[in-house]
Design goal:
single chain; alpha+beta; 5 strands
Length: 189
Amino acid sequence: MNSKEMELLHMELVDVIRQIYGEEVYITDRIGISGGDINDAYHLCLSNGENLFIKMNANAKDDFFAAEKTGLEALHKAGAVTLSVITYDKTKDNLSYLLLNFVRSSRPKRTYWEDLGHMLAQVHHAAVDKFGGFSPEFYDAYHEIIPKEPGYTVRRDLYNLYHLLNHLNLFGRSYLAAGRRILKSYSQK
């Protein structure tokens, strides 16, 4: 985001912050946050001591952050710990933003991995029973119209391998085990 876009956004955010927190509250500091490759992200410090997280995108479609809000709400309903959406909108200059509460990084608890495993299982369970996911009945009905062709499972895994390897390259080792499983199945054929 260039400095002009940031300045225009800052002026509009001043109004948003005042509408939410009151006329006397203003942004005291804006700190860039790295890690994402789609949006610009900042930690906003407010004069009332609150800390916010804002994601911005100059090229986002109208429903871009609405979809993220919906996804965060679905994760929260499934038991995941998520950021709270304060608001989202587009500026007059067509810059989309999503304003959330800010959570500081900290050292993981001793039970971090166990907690994450339980939470992820709850999310997957909710998606099947209630991330927006499709039920087995959906797939059964779909395949009544378009039946699975011979070799479907093999092709599905092969297609998924590309994405797993891409994610391994971009995001790290958490995708390694699934990729190895598929590669192993092909080496045994």
